Prior knowledge:
single chain; alpha+beta; Porin; 8-stranded antiparallel barrel; 8 strands; disordered N terminus
Amino acid sequence: xxxxxxxxxxxxxxxxxxxxxxxxxxxxxxxxxxxxxxxxxxxxxxxxxxxxxxxxxxxxxxxxxxxxxxxxxxxxxxxxxxxxxxxxxxxxxxxxxxxxxxxxxxxxxxxxxxxxxxxxxxxxxxxxxxxxxxxxxxxxxxxxxxxxxxxxxxxxxxxxxxxxxxxxxxxxxxxxxxxxxxxxxxxxxxxxxxxxxxxxxxxxxxxxxxxxxxxxx
Length: 217
């Protein structure tokens, strides 16, 4: 009689184990490590050299992120007599806060890492950053905010400009794992209508193509 009662329980336990095993196999290695750490070694033995991308669950992140980037900045200037384009390589520091999966707030400051024709160039900006996931681990975003740029010729009076404007940009980022992301974006920084080119009033406008890496804390 006991055998008759135990047999269905044995079949049920076997079915539950197989079903659970099937569900585990559907998980990515990273999800498996987070949700089933005790059985991770069974499915992904370290002897084979497997190292997963450790991804902190979104609900456990602080929302704060920071990063470094290089920017290729274009500063175009002109007056009634001449026009000129200057290209600079800038180092950017980034700090931001992910409010939710659709919105972030971000600030940036940059300074010249290399000059073109002796023009020193620096920028600052504060953005509202709407974003949308278009593919797994990839977001498109826009940058809307205010900021300023400051450019001047180091050894001459060729160019001097400083202004605060509306800054607008678009970009994309991609999750690498281990809470890192790479990104690339373009930002238009507006126009200075009071710039001086060889001490003659003119106009200057600036834009930046930036690529870098950020870390979610």
